[in-house]
Amino acid sequence: xxxxxxxxxxxxxxxxxxxFTRWIEEFSKRFETVEVxxxxxxxxxxPTNVRVHSLGKEELEGIGHLPAxxxxxxxxKKIQYIIKFYSYIWKYRNEYDAVFVHMNQEYIVxxxxxxxxxxxxxxxxxxxxxxNTWTRIAVWFSDMxxxxxxxxxxxxxxxxxxxxxxxxxxxxxxxxxxxxxxxxLLCFGRIAPVKRIERAIDxxxxxxxxxxxxxxxxxxxxxxxxxxxxxxxKKRVMEAKIExxxxxxxxxxxxxxxxxxxxxxxxxxFTDSGSFDKTVIEALACGAKVLVSNTSMKDILPQxxxxxxxxxxxxxxxxxxxxxxxxxxxxxxxMAKELVEKQSLKVLMDRLASYISNSKISL
Length: 363
Description:
By secondary structure, the protein is α/β, with parallel strands linked by helices. It folds into two domains: 2-165 and 345-362, Rossmann fold (3-Layer(aba) Sandwich), CATH 3.40.50.2000; 184-342, Rossmann fold, CATH 3.40.50.2000. Helices cover 39% and strands 17% of the residues. The chain contains 13 helices and twelve strands. The strands form two sheets. A seven-stranded parallel sheet has the order 3-2-1-4-5-6-7. A five-stranded parallel sheet has the order 10-9-8-11-12, sandwiched between helices. Helix 6 links the parallel strand 8 and strand 9 (215-219). The chain is globular.
């Protein structure tokens, strides 16, 4: 069976989507050929049965070593992307039997009608708490929808399947050669208001005021629209007078992410319910403990890793996680290991491939 995969970015060095190159590699092991259409193509080395077709964002906006094309409006860029998109899905129509769209509903809205005329099965991966009319249209066109969180917008549809997060346990693993800093807290990933990083800053300030020596690393980049939020976070640190204990670090790419988890004791993730942030599973795979306020993960995490979010409970849970004895730490690690195995990339890809390959029978 041959498959068309559509995603936003194919770039191993992407701080947010670098992981998807591994998804493509795993697709290549399970399908005869893989055609990939992406908005932006960066650095990637993929198997010989994979071909990547870029819509050209790297050329139009001068990303990487390429100079930007001056004088082109955003409208003209989008028109050029759309023209290229249609040209690819038509030109290679005989090179794929099914379509897998990762996150971006716009591609299904644009291509859904043509794919239906061509009798191509459509599979849609979308894991987000919010949706709109375009999301509903994309789901309507799709033969099957995948998400990891039971609170995701798409989770309520009958055609939706709940899936593992897909963490690459070959990359995200414990490394005894990396020193884990004592009492170190970590926020990892894109910096945005939805991440509620201000809670981590307030927690750090409270713990320090109580004489508990902790540090907080905020590792990640922000989109231009969230630049004000980043400045508000830095101002919050200054007003609390905890600058020596809080460090803002540029986002690291996919292949360097494990070291961030391996060098910290506890990952803090205060994202609201509705998503299933795989950074939590990645951190557990790397031997870190986690504290999460997302109810989608409440019942699967090791004991003591969920908080409803109020400051008193957060403080108590953090103090407990930082003070686990040898026996308690071993129990925590065993529970984490069991969870990580269930959420691994292999398990995810085996299930995805099974659903897609058997679609003619099961749908």
